[in-house]
Amino acid sequence: MKTAAIVAAFAALAMAGQALAGEACVRPTAPAPVDGATATKDQLFAGQAAVKAFIADSDSFQTCIISSIEAMRAAAKASKTKVAKVAIKDADSQIAANQKDKVDVGSAFNGAIKAFKAANPS
Predict the structure, then answer these.
(1) Within a 10 A sphere around the Cβ of 78, how many other Cβ atoms?
(2) Which one of 35, 40, 69, 73 has the minimum C-beta count within 10 Å?
(3) Contact 40/11 with Cβ under 8 angstroms?
């Protein structure tokens, strides 16, 4: 019976590792930037929708990564082992990189809004 519990724990750990590796957690692609100086109002609104969708998808991606690490920790606890530090470091790196993407996309869109307002003062 003890062997079955260990096998189940390692299976859960393997599944969590696969999720962290990207099979279940898919990092979203940043939307194309909007050129506010030349964009129409409709293009600006479409860009805004794309940015909002990207940010929401990014939040889901980060939640998925965190859930994967939590699953790995639970599996490791059940098997009385530890989660590999490289897995935690990889998760932290993926979250940090995606967070930077979110900031960059938001900043670029804010710049597009400023450029749009400058090009369309009325």
Answers:
(1) 15
(2) 40
(3) no
| % of the chain surpassing 90 pLDDT | 79
Under a CB-based contact definition with an 8 Å cutoff, are residues 65 and 25 in contact? Answer: yes
List the one residue out of 21, 44, 16 whose CA is nearest residue 109: 44
Q: Cα(10)–Cα(2) distance, rounded to whole angstroms?
A: 13
Q: Which pLDDT belongs to residue 26? A: 96
pLDDT tens digits, residue range 30-80? 999 999 999 999 999 999 999 999 999 999 999 999 999 999 999 999 999
Structure tokens that stand for 119 in this block: 């090009």
Length of the chain: 122
Q: How far is CA 1 from CA 4, 79, 89, in A?
A: 5, 13, 34
Q: Is 43 exposed, middle or buried (0-12, 13-18, 19+ CB in 10 A)?
A: middle
Identity of the amino acid at 54: F
